[in-house]
Design goal:
Distance between the termini: 176 Å
Number of strands: 0
Low-confidence stretches: 233-238
Order of helices and strands: HHHHHHHHH
Largest sheet: none
Number of domains: 2
Mean pLDDT: 75
Radius of gyration: 40 Å
Number of helices: 9
Structural class: mainly alpha
């Protein structure tokens, strides 16, 4: 009976020690987590407010976000979505020391790997956003230039320019995400070849009439030059011959 009592007392002592050792870790975990929640909330709300004042929602709608929402039947707040992404990113950063304080090194290692990968996601999103804006801008320029020059179908050229830039931006984003880099290189070569073929077909189909006009203009110019060269020009007398003729005329008049 005494041995049983001693074992129970020892077990209780060990349990109390574990609890007393765990309580400071738990307090440290909670403190770090609460501080992280406060900082992440403040920064995400501030970022969302700044983006809305800068007109980020209008830019997102310009690159096709509104059409995407209509097709999917959902309503998105671009500035709010970006603010939420920043919120969770900051919260993950604070979860790493919180997990260390709680004595969970395996969890902190996983979180470190996740945090090291998240900047690639931000860069990929930024590349896609800027690439889509550039694609819209270049497409408008190409449409206006081809319409003013009356070359082919402006919509076809504008669409080719737009989707070529969007595809290039998508490849860069996938490279940042480190998704099958060998496959991305092959896709890049295929896209370049496809764009070149598309431009050739667009010019061949849409610019055929313009090429015919240019050829007809060249032929008419060549024919005019050749006709002018073949027409005999009246020969003009030299000044010496004119003087001799006048002297002979004067001698005749005197005689």
């Amino acid at each position: 009976m005494e041995n049983i009592g001693v074992s129970i007392v020892n077990a209780l002592n060990d349990a109390v020690k574990l609890i007393l050792t765990f309580i400071p870790r738990l307090v440290g975990f909670l403190v770090i987590l609460i501080v992280g929640l406060i900082i992440a909330t403040v920064i995400s709300k501030a970022l969302t407010m700044v983006l809305r004042k800068l007109g980020f929602d209008r830019l997102a709608n310009r690159i096709g976000m509104a059409r995407f929402e209509q097709r999917m039947g959902i309503s998105l707040d671009p500035a709010g979505v970006l603010g939420k992404i920043v919120y969770w990113f900051l919260l993950l950063i604070f979860l790493v020391p919180a997990a260390d304080a709680l004595g969970l090194p395996a969890v902190s290692n996983i979180l470190n790997q996740l945090i090291a990968y998240i900047p690639n996601v931000f860069v990929a999103i930024l590349v896609l956003f800027l690439g889509t804006l550039a694609a819209m801008f270049v497409a408008d320029i190409v449409r206006g230039a081809t319409a003013s020059a009356n070359i082919g179908n402006p919509s076809i050229f504008a669409g080719i320019a737009r989707w070529a830039i969007v595809g290039f931006a998508a490849l860069i984003a996938l490279e940042q995400l480190q998704i099958a880099p060998a496959l991305i290189n092959e896709l890049f070569g295929a896209i370049v070849a496809a764009v070149a073929l598309a431009f050739a077909l667009a010019f061949g189909l849409g610019g055929r009439e313009t090429a015919q006009r240019w050829l007809s203009r060249g032929e008419s110019t060549v024919s005019k030059v050749s006709s002018q060269a073949s027409t005999p020009q009246p020969q003009q007398q030299s000044p010496t011959a004119q003087m001799q003729a006048e002297s002979l005329r004067n001698q005749r008049e005197r005689a």
